[in-house]
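A.,

Following up on our hallway conversation. Structure tokens first:
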């Protein structure tokens, strides 16, 4: 129903908020473990997967003809999931930790600002829906 009113915008914004929320938790965990020996930082990537989910996954969509077939990626927003991965291939210090506190704090601030902007867009969409319902 909402997809018909807003063309899926609310679903897209919600998926973006999910990705940003997971990214913010990962950065917070990285900051909390900045002094933990052998700790390897986490990263969350979601932008490319969200773009693929919005565009339907592929330029020429494939169909699954058997339940045992594997999906080649998200076919839509309902299958979108942000990707959390541990960065193992770098070390900044002798104790094996690869967290740069300055970089993590900057990324945490950027993620927070982006989250607030997307949340504001979601809020404005909801206010618009409320006005349509009220007939304002």
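Then the amino acids I'd put at each of the 136 positions:
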């Amino acid at each position: 129903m909402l997809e018909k009113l807003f063309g899926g915008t609310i679903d897209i914004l919600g998926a973006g908020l999910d990705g940003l929320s997971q990214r913010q938790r990962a950065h917070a965990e990285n900051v909390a473990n900045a002094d933990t020996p052998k700790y390897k930082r986490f990263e969350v990537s979601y932008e490319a997967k969200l773009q693929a989910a919005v565009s339907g996954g592929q330029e020429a969509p494939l169909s699954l003809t058997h339940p045992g077939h594997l999906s080649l990626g998200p076919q839509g927003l309902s299958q979108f999931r942000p990707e959390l991965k541990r960065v193992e291939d770098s070390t900044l210090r002798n104790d094996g930790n690869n967290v740069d506190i300055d970089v993590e704090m900057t990324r945490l601030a950027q993620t927070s600002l982006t989250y607030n902007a997307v949340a504001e867009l979601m809020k404005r969409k909801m206010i618009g829906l409320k006005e349509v319902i009220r007939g304002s």
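The beta strands are 42-45, 83-86. Curious whether your intuition agrees with the design.

B.
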